[in-house]
Amino acid sequence: MNGDSAAHDRPDCRPIRNLPLLTTQMPSQTTVLEKPGKMRDESPSFRIGSVPYLNAAPLTYGIESTTEFVPPSELSARLRSGELDAALLSVTESICFPELILLDGYGICSDGPVLSVFLAHLDPLEEIDTIYLDPASCTSVRLLQVILAELGLNPRLKPLEKPYARAGEMRNVLLIGNPAIAFLNGNPPHSILDLGEAWKSLTGLPFVYAGWIARKDGVVPLQPLHRHLNNIAENGLRHIDSIREKHPDFTPEFRRKYIGGAIHYVIGDAERQGLRLFASKLRQLDGISAPDSEFLVDSIKT
């Protein structure tokens, strides 16, 4: 391992270290699925953004044409600047940025293998010197750091600067979302460390990768925004069979295994416990002893 040098080279998502994430190479999502009746016409005019991944489809069902699908790092910047009222973002954003809050209810979760967040490695884990990181998701990078620390490993972490199509040239690479799924479909020679499976094995808890995040002091009141987004999610889950059959990404067989299978969407008690444990481990990893600020809105108050 590289010991002290790793601390200087690894990308870090905490704002106090101000290391930028790459924003290129992201797929776009433009397909609009069958609309759920009059929901869009009756929806408030909230400014919503989302990651452009298959796993987000149930949470944005029916609002695709009014949702901005852009890279996570761009979503974060636009949300913090006030350009968006809410964004489906990595949960680490609400943990690391005190002005942001995660709205409880629905998110992108797994309770075991997630199939789309993994370390693909040719070297044995204990011999890995360098891992190249898909820079799209802060949460996945930080989850990898937590898991490596739990395993007593400290390789150098560097941003992946090649196109996703060339990720297979890397001996050890972290991939997420649609590019990760496409990578696996290419039958690479790499071994796969599924981060959802690793987290479950280490903690016995599910993991929440992303959720609806808003500004605590935004111009839009949190209660109606929170309620609106939960209503959208509930409608999407009612139409999950339609999404599995009609969404254009990957095969119907994979979508049935993935949407509502490997990926589930309800943030319950176990998911909240996993979130708070993840936040605690991040603070331990970064050497922060101060108590954490609240990053999760547990319920909608009327």
Description:
The protein has 302 residues and is an alpha/beta fold. The protein folds into 2 domains: 4-11 and 114-203, Periplasmic binding protein-like II (D-Maltodextrin-Binding Protein, domain 2, 3-Layer(aba) Sandwich), CATH 3.40.190; 37-112 and 206-297, D-Maltodextrin-Binding Protein, domain 2 (3-Layer(aba) Sandwich). Helix content is 34%, strand content 19%. The protein has helices at 4-9, 39-42, 72-80, 92-96, 138-150, 177-185, 195-203, 222-238, 240-246, 252-258, 269-285, and strands at 48-50, 67-69, 86-90, 100-110, 117-121, 130-133, 156-159, 172-176, 191-194, 207-215, 264-266, 296-297. Strands 1, 2, 3, 4, 10, 11 and 12 form a 7-stranded mixed beta sheet that branches. The model is unreliable at 1-12 and 14-42 (pLDDT under 50).
Label this structure with key terms.
seven-stranded mixed beta sheet, D-Maltodextrin-Binding Protein, domain 2, 11 helices, alpha/beta, 302 residues
What percent of residues are in strands?
15-25%
What is the CATH homologous superfamily assignment of the largest domain? Periplasmic binding protein-like II
Low-confidence stretches: 1-12, 14-42
Shape: globular
Q: What integer value in Å does the Rg equal?
A: 18 Å
CATH architectural name of the largest domain: 3-Layer(aba) Sandwich
Structural class: alpha/beta
Short description:
The protein has 302 residues and is of the alpha/beta class. It is built from 11 helices and 12 strands.
